[in-house]
Design brief:
The structure is a single chain. With 253 residues, the chain is an alpha/beta fold. Helices cover 30% and strands 28% of the residues. It is built from six helices and ten strands. The protein has a five-stranded mixed β-barrel with strand order 5-9-8-6-10, surrounded by four helices. Strand 8, helix 4 and strand 9 form a beta-alpha-beta unit. Helix 3 crosses helix 6. It is globular, with a radius of gyration of 17 Å. The two termini are 23 Å apart. The chain binds uracil. The site of uracil has 10 residues, from strand 5, strand 9 and strand 10.
């Protein structure tokens, strides 16, 4: 079978894997792969898409980067689905909106506010961006069994890091009226966090009859600090990997 246009891998390469761990940063793929199994195999690196094949128990699993944002995430989902992937688990990074969420905490999404454009190419805006119930339940259960704390709730998924997440430290410093006060409003509406891929992940997966779930490491809190603390990041990333690993080990994924 031909290699997929962007991810540059074929059905033969993935050894009947049904599940992929997706993450934004191409450099993070190798790190996750090696933490899962030091015999993981690098399959391809093309543009923002780096892919490794690894194994959890007796299951082959892919790890693939999506780059930042919804358009490149949708491309990855399309092409991975075409070669047989059914389950998409995103491990990402995120900015917290709620005051009680700290750097190095873990958030599991139940659904996302659709502040992106890509998902509207797949389904009208009334269609919910909702995580797969079972996949999410597996993540929650695995975290509980491993005594790893997490926050569970709704994520705001934005196409932009600056304007759409109401950052005033951009080049112009200007945020259009639509987003002025948005962070306070999401806070009041109990939205937990900002990131940039889950709305596309959830809508595309539901529209194509695939399963998608997402968990994140908190690297900033929009009420306080924008500084990444490497120690808490590494600990939380390791915990995310443990949660996903256990979910895959214990279920038919
Ligand atoms: N990713 C985002 O989109 N926003 C943040 O604040 C942190 C990570």
């Amino acid at each position: 079978m031909n290699k997929m246009y962007h991810i540059n891998i074929s059905k033969n390469d993935i050894k009947e894997a049904k599940t992929v761990i997706v993450t934004g940063d191409p450099a993070r793929v190798k790190i996750i792969a090696n933490k899962i199994d030091d015999k993981s195999i690098a399959l391809s690196s093309n543009r923002e898409y780096t892919t490794y094949l690894t194994a959890i128990g007796d299951k082959n699993i892919l790890i693939c980067s999506t780059g930042i944002g919804s358009p490149s995430t949708a491309i990855a989902i399309e092409e991975l689905a075409k070669i047989g992937i059914k389950n998409f688990i995103r491990i990402g990074t995120t900015g917290a909106i709620q005051k009680n969420i700290s750097l190095g905490d873990i958030i599991i999404s139940t659904a996302s506010v659709r502040l992106d454009g890509t998902s509207t190419h797949y389904a009208p805006i009334e269609y919910p961006a909702v995580a797969d119930h079972y996949l999410t339940h597996y993540l929650v259960n695995s975290a509980n069994k491993k005594n790893i704390d997490f926050h569970l709730g709704i994520t705001a998924s934005s196409d932009t890091f600056y304007c759409g997440q109401e950052r005033y430290d951009s080049y112009s410093g200007y945020v259009i009226k639509r987003f002025q006060g948005a962070t306070e409003e999401w806070n009041k509406l109990n939205v937990l966090n900002y990131e940039m891929e889950s709305s596309a992940l959830f809508v595309v997966c539901n529209a194509l009859n695939l399963k998608g779930a997402a968990l994140y490491v908190v690297i900033d809190n929009r009420n306080e600090s924008e500084k990444v603390n490497l120690d808490s990041y590494n600990k939380a990333m390791n915990n995310c990997i443990k949660i996903v690993k256990k979910s895959i080990l214990e279920h038919d994924l």
